[in-house]
Amino acid sequence: MIRKLKTAEQLIAQGKTVNEVCRVIEVTQPNYHRWRQQFGGMQAEEAKRLTQLEKENARLKKLLAEAELEKAMLKDHAEGNF
Q1: 15, 39, 57, 76: which has the fewest C-beta neighbours closer than 10 Å?
Q2: Pair (3, 35) in one structural domain
Q3: 8, exposed or middle or buried, with CB in 10 Å at 0-12, 13-18, 19+?
Q4: What is the count of structural domains for the chain?
């Protein structure tokens, strides 16, 4: 993704339009603009780290949701609402 963005920047600097660039790097214009907004100034290592953090965040949210569900089930069981 970062490589494609770097290629896109080079092509735009050469005078290509965004539409032409998107065809060359084989992404849709909305994806190109989203990537540019999200990863525009990043180096490859920074983007990898961001992706790792996003995955870890999703995993932790899932664990929290499971813990909250288990807590609610135990509370219902303790109150005799099973």
Answers
A1: 15
A2: yes
A3: buried
A4: 2
